Amino acid sequence: MNGRRIILALDVENFSKAKRFVNLLYPKIKIFKVGLQLFIASGPKIVEFIRQKGAEVFLDLKFFDIPNTVANATRQAVRLKVKMLTLHVSGGEEMLRAAAKAAAEESSRLKIKSPLLIGVTVLTSQKASSEEVLRLAKFGLSCGLDGVVCSAQEARNLRSKIKKKFIMVTPGIRPDKTIRDDQKRTATIAEALRSGSDFLVIGRPILEAKNPLQVVAEQCSVTAN
User: Fold this and answer.
1) Owning domain of residue 74
2) 163 catalytically annotated
3) Closest among 1, 7, 2, 3 to 199, alpha carbons compared
4) What's 122's DSSP letter?
5) Is residue 1 part of a domain?
6) Is 117 exposed, middle or buried (0-12, 13-18, 19+ CB in 10 A)?
7) Rounded Cα distance, 141 and 143, in Å
8) At 35, which CATH number?
9) Could you tell me if residue 42 is inside a domain?
10) Helices (H) and strands (E) in the chain, counts
11) CA 122, CA 190: separation in Å to the nearest integer?
12) pTM
């Protein structure tokens, strides 16, 4: 079983619910995504709880602001010792380079590993052409990012067209392709892995399951094959 590639999206409304899922699913799940909803409800304490538990944090706040603000926010994220964080590639070169510089400087000052900076190209709730996603991905990586968020459908194209080493994080993972919600570009774990994705983000199929542990065990078994 390999749970290191699966990220559980803790898209819940409060700290107590998030804590319950972390307690239930760690160490089968080793990385937990903290997004806008949970971070606004809980603040840094949910990040601290996850790390104290022994797991890692994917801070998915999609930074998008003026360069100085994003740089300062990135420094704060480094101090929380998150594994990775997201920024909107459309924020532009100056913003992305400011974030990369801030992450490098702060992690060096604290003598810790710098978080992976992951660029958001086009939200998975939106339609996008493969050319546009490729353009944004190349641009973000050229500005110092470590990887990008992309659908499984886009991952294969990015892996073949971009020769440098980079990370791909794929949301919208669904155990069953018949499941439909606001995610437009979904895929199964097997499809995402075949496309070359490194990390797979799963939320509702686990959070809403009658037996979350069983779903996690089933999905982890796919990543091990």
Assistant:
1) 6-224
2) no
3) 7
4) S
5) no
6) buried
7) 5
8) 3.20.20.70
9) yes
10) 10, 8
11) 22
12) 0.92
- DSSP conformation letters of 185-218: S-B-HHHHHHHT-SEEEE-HHHHT-SSHHHHHHH
Do residues 47 and 34 touch, judged by C-beta distance below 8 A?
A: yes
- Tens-level pLDDT at each residue, the chain (225 residues): 356 799 999 999 999 999 999 999 999 999 999 999 999 999 999 999 999 999 999 999 999 999 999 999 999 999 999 999 999 999 999 999 999 999 999 999 999 999 999 999 988 777 778 899 999 999 999 999 999 999 888 999 999 999 999 999 999 888 765 455 545 566 788 888 888 999 999 999 999 999 999 988 887 776 655
Which residue among the candidates 62, 81, 101, 184 is catalytic per the annotation?
A: 62
By DSSP bridging, strand 31-35 and strand 6-9 are parallel
- Whether 111 maps to a domain, the answer reads yes
Q: Supply 26's token pair.
A: 């760690």
What phi-psi label fits residue 94: left (phi over 0), alpha (psi between -120 and 50 degrees) or beta?
A: alpha
Query: Number of structural domains, the chain?
Result: 1
Burial string for 35-72 (b: 16+ CB within 10 Å, else e) reads: beebbeebeeebbebbbeeebbbbbbbbbbeebeebbe
Residue 113 gets which letter from DSSP?
Answer: P
Q: Which two tokens stand for residue 177?
A: 């392709």
Residue 36 lies in a domain: yes
> 113: exposed, middle or buried (C-beta count within 10 Å: 0-12, 13-18, 19+)?
exposed
Torsion angle of the four alpha carbons 187, 193, 198, 204, in this order, in degrees rounded to the nearest 10: 30
Could you tell me which of 39, 92, 85 has the C-alpha nearest to residue 65?
92
